[in-house]
Amino acid sequence: MAQIRVMGDEDEVAAVLEILLPFVQASTALVASAPRELGMRGPGRRVVFELLPAAPSPVTMERADQPAPSRRQLPS
Q1: Which of 54, 53, 55, 16 is CA-nearest to residue 35?
Q2: What is the C-alpha to C-alpha distance for residues 53 and 56, in angstroms, rounded to an integer?
Q3: Which tens digit of pLDDT belongs to each residue from 42-64?
Q4: What's the predicted TM-score (pTM) here?
Q5: How many C-beta atoms lie closer than 10 Å to residue 47's C-beta?
């Protein structure tokens, strides 16, 4: 899983996330986790989120064999 980390001045990080997150969330090729704020050792802000490739589209399969004959229920 890839991790995106946005670090810097608080206002700059907010501005970048405001632009970046809608692009990532609108992507059909990527799935993003919720952003998490990390603690700082100094001034500024650190935000991280994980990215995964989107799951492939669903696969449809048809039976290659013949289905088992259905059992008839005897009348009661």
Answers
A1: 16
A2: 9
A3: 888 999 999 999 887 677 777 77
A4: 0.65
A5: 19
As given in the structure block, the two tokens for residue 36 are 């998490």
Nearest to 35 by CA among 4, 2, 1: 4
Q: Write out the chain in H/E/C secondary structure.
A: CEEEEEEECHHHHHHHHHHHHHHHHHCCCEEECCCEEECCCCCCEEEEEEEEECCCCCCCCCCCCCCCCCCCCCCC
Write the pLDDT tens digit of every residue in 7-45: 999 999 999 999 999 999 899 899 999 999 998 778 889
Closest by CA to 44, choosing from 6, 9, 68, is 9
Tokens of 65: 């064999």
